[in-house]
Write a structure and sequence with these properties.
Blueprint: H1 4-8, H2 20-46, H3 48-55, H4 64-87, H5 89-106, H6 113-141, H7 147-157, H8 159-177, H9 182-201, H10 214-220, H11 223-246, H12 252-277, H13 292-322, H14 327-351, H15 357-376, H16 389-414, H17 420-454, H18 469-497
């Protein structure tokens, strides 16, 4: 069995050797991009009512504080991923991080609703630049299979779920004991540290473009494809976000969905043309999806993230709206997930290369399904937190960390270096699509079941009071749907990877 030192020697020839301490700082820096991305989104969810009161934003429009960020992040991922592959991942990562730092620092001082939402969208634009490039930088630096790569990708994979968990915890604490603006201040400080560190720790010869002519590099970017996919994803995600707020029969909602699907079809046709006969590289090589394992994994990622995101949303509803807990009480209930999230990367990185990958995939799905199942069961109210909710949240944290570790390592292994950043972008695009579709469907189910149980129409449902059993029935129905999402992802992964092992033993 190779030692860590031996594994560290298996770094790509075009990247400088990294000592153990340098590797730790390097991985922590690029992992910070994934952490800050979900931290920035989840932390704001918790303080939406507070921001709404301070800026006089009606409750019906408060969701746009989150949606504007998610829209720009999801829509610009592919374009930034390809730009990074052409211009250099290190450069785009640093610029994206710097952009997020500045926007986060300014955002809380915007005094009106429209300006605040615009700056949230600008924040997502910067996050879309540095998140996919982080995957590409890791893949190019730790290109040889071994223990060093396993540790690096396990650590990075935990950045996103940890951001969601700590976003909830930190936001609850800040909202209780300090001014809400400090949520953005913390984001700015953390991203500023990442920006400074990235200048010094990311290898300068990482992903240096072969062609240094700026005009030729500009021509190499498929701007037509970028426009098509960005606009189509924007319309699709916008329609999914609006559907549950204004109703799915509102004329512009199905119209936007239909137009977005048509534009995505045109985008695919354009990419196929460029890949076969074009005078420039396509934004997205459609041939990547001819890899059966890659295609199925992206689809499974979509279903898994739908289940994961919904679990986080509906457990928050359960604690705050059904049980009537305060922000700090909700934060304390999520605290064990943060602790497990910090420790689980160590266990997962140790398991990679020693346990068949399919076993880790299966375990992660079963744990996530079990967490939703526990919240879906009709357990009595007198069951204590440590008998029930505690274990559901522990399973939830371990399951997500395990899945994301396997996923990121797989993507970095099966695709060539020149496609690493776009592959990282694809991971997050399917992640965002899964979250959007999953939350739209689950919210519709939750609302319909609650309305049916109370004898009201869904559009006439009012504000939920703590202890409302009809509301609880809706949450449980949504959790059962989340179990189905997790098991669907498990079926896809099992079909694709039952006899497929890609992580070498360290």
């Amino acid at each position: 069995m190779g030692s860590t030192t031996k594994a560290e020697e298996n770094i790509a020839e075009d990247a400088p050797p990294l000592s153990r301490s340098a590797s730790i700082v390097f991985v922590a820096t690029v992992t910070g991009a994934a952490f800050i991305n979900t931290f920035a989104s989840q932390s704001v969810v918790i303080i939406l009512p507070t921001i709404g009161r301070k800026l006089d934003i009606p409750e019906a429009r408060q969701q746009w504080i989150v949606t504007s960020y998610v829209l720009t992040f999801g829509c610009f991922l592919l374009l930034w991923g390809r730009i990074a592959d052409i211009y250099g991942k290190r450069t785009i990562f640093i610029l994206g991080s710097l952009w997020v730092t500045v926007i986060s620092a300014v955002n809380p001082f915007i005094p009106n609703e429209i300006g605040f939402d615009i700056f949230r969208g600008l924040h997502g634009l910067g996050a879309a630049a540095n998140v996919p490039t982080a995957v590409g930088i890791l893949g190019a630096t730790f290109s040889s299979p071994g223990r060093a790569k396993n540790y690096a990708f396990s650590a990075y994979a935990c950045g996103s779920p940890l951001g969601s968990i700590f976003g909830t915890i930190v936001s609850g604490a800040v909202a209780q004991y300090a001014a809400w603006q400090w949520i953005f201040g913390i984001q700015a400080i953390l991203t500023g540290l990442i920006t400074i560190a990235s200048i010094y720790v990311i290898p300068k010869n990482e992903a240096v473009p072969a062609n240094s002519n700026t005009k030729d590099l500009f021509r190499d970017v498929d701007w037509t494809g970028g426009l098509l996919v960005t606009v189509s994803l924007f319309m699709l995600l916008f329609a999914l976000a609006e559907g549950n707020m204004v109703g799915w029969t509102t004329p512009y909602v199905p119209s936007l969905i239909a137009i977005s699907v048509l534009m995505l079809a045109v985008f695919v046709a354009w990419q196929l043309h460029l890949e076969k006969k074009g005078d420039r590289p396509p934004l997205l090589k459609i041939s990547l999806f001819r890899n059966f394992h890659f295609s199925v994994t992206m689809l499974a990622n979509c279903f898994f993230c739908a289940s994961f995101n919904n679990m986080l949303v509906f457990t928050t509803y359960f604690f705050q709206d059904y049980q009537g807990l305060s922000l700090i009480q909700t934060m304390l209930r999520f605290l064990p997930t943060g602790l497990v999230g910090v420790l689980s990367p160590i266990a997962v990185s140790f398991a990679l290369g020693r346990i068949p990958t399919i076993s880790l995939f299966v375990a992660s799905h079963l744990l996530l399904a079990a967490s939703s199942l526990l919240f879906g069961l009709p357990l009595p109210d007198d069951v204590s937190y440590f008998e029930w909710e505690f274990w559901a949240l522990i399973f939830f944290a371990i399951g997500m960390n395990s899945f994301w570790s396997c996923l990121t390592l797989f993507v970095s292994t099966v695709l060539p270096k020149e496609d690493q950043a776009i592959a990282g972008a694809l991971m997050y695009v399917f992640n965002q699509l899964g979250r959007a579709f999953g939350l739209a469907i689950s919210t519709a189910v939750q609302t319909a079941v609650s309305a049916s149980s109370s004898g009201n129409q869904a559009e006439k449902m009012g504000i939920t009071e703590p202890g409302d059993k009809n509301f609880l029935k809706g949450i449980r129905a949504a959790c059962w749907l989340d179990v189905g999402f997790a098991l669907t992802s498990l079926a896809l992964i099992s079909a694709a990877f039952w006899k497929f092992e890609y992580v070498q033993r360290g």
